[in-house]
Amino acid sequence: MSTIANALQSQVGRKILTGLTGIFLTLFLVAHLSGNLSLFIPDGGESFNLYADFLHSLGPLLWIAEIILVILFLTHAYLGVSIYLKKKRARPENYKYYKSQGGPSKQNFASTSMLISGSIILLFVVLHVMHFKYHLFSPETYMVEGTEMVDLARHVSEAFQNPWIVAAYTFVMVLIGVHLKHGVWSAFISLGAKNPKLTPVLYTVGGIVALLLSLGFLAIPLYIFINGGL
Amino acid sequence: MSSTDLIKVHLKVWRQDGPQAKGFFEDYTLDEVNTHMSFLEMLDVLNERLMKDKKEPIEFDHDCREGICGSCNLVINGVPHGPEMLTAACQLHMRHFKDGETITIEPWRATAFPIIKDLVVDRNAFDRIMSAGGYISVSTGNAPDANAIPISKPDSDSAMDYAVCIGCGACVAACPNSSASLFTGAKVSQLSRLPQGAPERKKRVIAMVDQMEKEGFGDCSNFAECEAVCPVGISITAIANMRTEYVKAVLG
Amino acid sequence: MEVADKKYTFNWDNKIPTGPVEKKWSTHKNNIKLVNPSNKRKYNIIVVGTGLAGASAAASLGELGYNVKAFCIQDSARRAHSIAAQGGINAAKNYQNDGDSIWRLFYDTVKGGDYRSREANVYRLAEVSNSIIDQCVAQGVPFAREYGGTLTNRSFGGAQLSRTFYARGQTGQQLLLGAYSALMKSMKSGKVAVHTREEMLELVTVDGEAKGIISRNLVTGKINRHAADAVLLCTGGYGNVFYLSTNAKNSNVTAAWRCHRKGALFANPSFTQIHPTCIPVSGEYQSKLTLMSESLRNDGRVWVPKKVNDKRHPNEIPEDERDYYLERIYPSFGNLVPRDVASRNAKIVCDEGRGVGETGLAVYLDFRDAIKRDGEDAIRDRYGNLFDMYHKITDDNPYKLPMRIYPAVHYTMGGLWVDYNLMTTVPGLFALGEANFSDHGANRLGASALMQGLADGYFVIPYTIGNYLAETKPGQITTDHAAFDQVEKEITEEISKLLSIKGSKTILDFHRQLGKIMWDKVGMSRDEDGLKQAIAEIQALRKEFWTDVFVPGKAATYNKYLEYALRVADFLELGELMARDALERKESCGGHFRLESQTPEGEAKRDDENYSHVSAWEFKGKDAEPVEHREPLEFENVKLTQRSYK
């Protein structure tokens, strides 16, 4: 329907789409993290590998899920960039001196760096998928119980003993936290959270979600690095 | 009453001859500024001095000087309407500045608010957003008795919370994206809370949002800077309202 | 008596319909000539000013099908000074069941105006007051409500009934935004074109009839011509002649004054309202005065120390050393006496040396007892924004300390003379709202200005303009008519003259000086000597202005000080007329207090035998004395009594 198509291109539509895609991506992160945390089950990575194997066994379903994820990512990124470009057009000559008023303002490092944090995260996602999904950097396979499969757990464990990789992951996981600190709250507001008493609560909730996800993802490389393996 | 003090201030004021001209900062120093003066009175004093020296005074918009007409539009020390929350520039007093302080003054900056001269900008874009749908279409003489439609006090109070917008444009000026969402959202919110506004509810929000886009205002990224600088403290809930109204209008 | 010797004739018809006062308006409406709906689009109407009167008139006339051009000097129609009215709007709804009626509102308004207004006009005002509330509510104006969902009211000075509708302390704003939204709707429909930042500088007349205006585009400085079949002045009052007033800085008399010079009589120019509850002046740099709504007098108690020159902190002055002078002198109205009475008494106690604050020119307005009675939250609910505003300006917290208030010029009851149709003595030129003189007599009651502005715009002019237009062929005059050439030339020369003087004093210097003369000699109390001095001083000041003023910048750019210079030039002419009018009216009435005419107790003493008339002044040339005409006032329904609020 053309009105809906128009609506999606309006300021409000764009923002709602950004919020919706953002929330789905966040939910994806929650799912991703829950799977990853199985690395902490002390069975030499078996649970984690089984989980990875289960995902692979889904076949076409996994493909569909992955395509949806890619669409979500690209839509979210496209909207972010277009909002940025519009902002440039909306104020070609900037203030020579500009400052936030503070108070209820949510203008801070997190909210003003969404485009930068988002871009870095996007780049990271590409590398991350190449690294752990396509094993571009360490493409060995192993035989487990007669079938050939990837010992992803070992792969992860080995990768996170490299200080450079750990440093890079740490940096990006912190950035994800920063991105979500504004993103989660912003999504609530974009989707119409309207109770003025609730908004400060939402902001805190957003911050907690961001912190937990960031810490959760950070825990794995840091643990492996400090522990010298799984 | 707090006692009268005199302070010295250095001003960096944006001067720009016309819409196309290149602007620049000009520096001035005022040695004895009474702290009970309003910010605009301080500028009056400076202008008087400039004119005594046969120089061109600084142009700035002002009218009621009571914080209600929404004319004044100065970005003071990087913040629209200056450092005091819930205060329009005309209601800002010099007691909020320190002796020897340097104060920068710039106009609102946004494509939709082109500069006319010095600190004066054109805000007709707001009129056009209002004209797109910020009203209830009731011709004179068509109204039923005022008490014919009861409206609950909370609804009426809530409508009033949004209706107090003075249309100054500080929300746009402060927004890193130059979005007019708080202004538009406030009017949409006011009228959506009242039964009188219901018949045009859907048409209104779509038309006003479209107009906002056409005028060249940026998108809202929920920075809430607008709420922080709004001289009458309109909450960004207005923007959330506008979005739900919009979704209802499109889907419903 | 001197008056009896002079022969005053009045050759204009005020068009008041015959018949009982209750029937006049409906009879008149039935007899008004109509313009055929399909013909309306052929008529062009200019509306100058977009306050309550202008916005409501422009929108309503646009709805009827006329082509309307609306002009305002601000960057948006929404910024007109009506926006600053705080307290409320009266209507005879009787929602409170306290016995209110159109008759009572009419009666109170005539009495409040000290019997110097026309009964017929005031009755009509009271009659349409209820429709205004209906109209505004339909537009979405969020008036205060009861929990049951119905509208609530409060009482206001000069009335013993609760008939004032309000929207917190921003009633004017909400009503104006309602009218503005109607204007924006008409703009969208294409029936009204709104010209912002465009100032009317002259009226163009052809054969004595209004046929257009000359305006200046305030952004480019370009002088523009606009032709029309009728011109409506909705340009507000001229309180800024006093320099310090509660008016917005850009409020001015120019449009009205230029029309006066083109033949429109100016009525009762000296009738000025001094509002009792303003924030006192704090220094020489002061640019304007801020009003605190008079609704504060519902709960605040006005007092000064009993002792002269008592410099103690207000909270340290014990109860028995405080003089609640309004409650003492006027036991039945107390703090709610009309504005003129409250103002004059403040001046009296300050003149006695009992004034408070640094300057001694202030009295206390104390909420201590109300806070004790109703709690701080209840007071905050009622007046929160006013208290905040006071706090912001003075740095004092009114929840803890009494406010300091002092009277300030607030409203001008005088204005262009209009007949019952709101038409001035220049055919085709109408004046609405504060710009005309018609409804408030010598003193305006609180919450009546908003009522009058909207009554004129929504419910009077849409009918009465038909009477003139039906007899006028549309579009006869275009902007290439010689009359436009002539007037444009005059105004262009005037602007060049101002810019070429390059004198040593600023415009503000002159305005301040004029203001001081006006406040001292044509202000709260006036006497013959002072008024005569004022006339001489203003004449001298005017001469000096035209030889020694410095106007910066150029004509063809944005130039706020050039706008200002043109306005001050007109104030310098108006000020003299106000003094003359005050001098000729040797009685005291309403806001006009002549020291020579008071009762032994010091109350205003009216002289109904000699001064029961409207003084309407005719312009005779810049250096010639104006001529006074007197329209007699007849009271058939209201019994003239010496006002007493005791």
How would you summarize this macromolecular structure in one to three sentences?
With 230 residues, chain A is mainly alpha-helical.
Could you describe the 3D structure shown?
The complex is a heterotrimer of chains A (230), B (252) and C (646). Chain A has 230 residues and is mainly α. Chain A has one domain. Helices cover 72% and strands 3% of the residues of chain A. In chain A, strands 1-2 form a two-stranded antiparallel sheet. In chain A, a hairpin with a 2-residue loop joins strand 1 and strand 2 (147-149). Chain B is an alpha+beta fold. Chain B folds into two domains: 6-116, Ubiquitin-like (UB roll), CATH 3.10.20; 124-251, Alpha-helical ferredoxin (Fumarate Reductase Iron-sulfur Protein, Chain B, domain 2), CATH 1.10.1060. Chain B has helices at 39-52, 124-133, 153-163, 170-174, 181-192, 201-214, 225-229, 237-251; strands at 6-15, 24-34, 74-76, 79-80, 101-107, 115-117, 120-121. In chain B, the strands form two sheets. Chain B has a five-stranded mixed β-sheet. A two-stranded antiparallel sheet of chain B has the order 6-7. Chain C has three domains: 84-186 and 216-247 and 433-479, 3-Layer(bba) Sandwich (FAD/NAD(P)-binding domain), CATH 3.50.50.60; 275-408, Succinate dehydrogenase/fumarate reductase flavoprotein, catalytic domain (Flavocytochrome C3, Chain A, domain 1); 480-632, Up-down Bundle (Methane Monooxygenase Hydroxylase, Chain G, domain 1), CATH 1.20.58. In chain C, the strands form six sheets. Chain C has a five-stranded parallel β-sheet, with helices on both faces. A five-stranded antiparallel β-sheet of chain C has the order 12-16-15-13-14. In chain C, strands 17-11-21-22 form a four-stranded antiparallel β-sheet. In chain C, helix 6 (119-139) packs across helix 13 (449-469).
Helices and strands, with pairings:
The complex is a heterotrimer of chains A (230), B (252) and C (646).
Chain A: H1 2-9, H2 11-36, H3 46-57, H4 60-90, H5 109-112, H6 114-132, E1 142-144, E2 147-149, H7 152-159, H8 163-190, H9 198-227
Antiparallel strand pairs in A: 1-2
Helix pairs in contact in A: 1-2, 2-4, 2-8, 2-9, 4-6, 6-8, 8-9
Chain B: E1 6-15, E2 24-34, H1 39-52, E3 74-76, E4 79-80, E5 101-107, E6 115-117, E7 120-121, H2 124-133, H3 153-163, H4 170-174, H5 181-192, H6 201-214, H7 225-229, H8 237-251
Parallel strand pairs in B: 1-5
Antiparallel strand pairs in B: 1-2, 3-4, 3-5, 6-7
Helix pairs in contact in B: 2-6, 3-5, 5-6, 5-8, 6-8
Chain C: H1 2-5, H2 21-31, H3 37-40, E1 44-48, H4 52-64, E2 67-71, E3 89-90, H5 102-112, H6 119-139, E4 154-155, E5 162-165, H7 171-189, E6 192-195, E7 198-206, E8 209-217, E9 223-227, E10 230-233, H8 254-261, E11 266-267, E12 272-278, E13 301-305, E14 322-323, H9 325-329, H10 339-351, E15 363-366, H11 368-374, H12 376-394, E16 403-412, E17 415-416, E18 429-431, H13 449-469, H14 482-501, E19 505-506, H15 507-521, H16 528-548, E20 549-550, H17 560-584, H18 608-611, E21 613-618, E22 627-632
Parallel strand pairs in C: 1-2, 1-10, 2-6, 10-18, 19-20
Antiparallel strand pairs in C: 3-5, 4-5, 7-8, 8-9, 11-17, 11-21, 12-16, 13-14, 13-15, 15-16, 21-22
Helix pairs in contact in C: 2-6, 4-7, 4-13, 5-6, 6-13, 11-12, 15-16, 15-17, 16-17
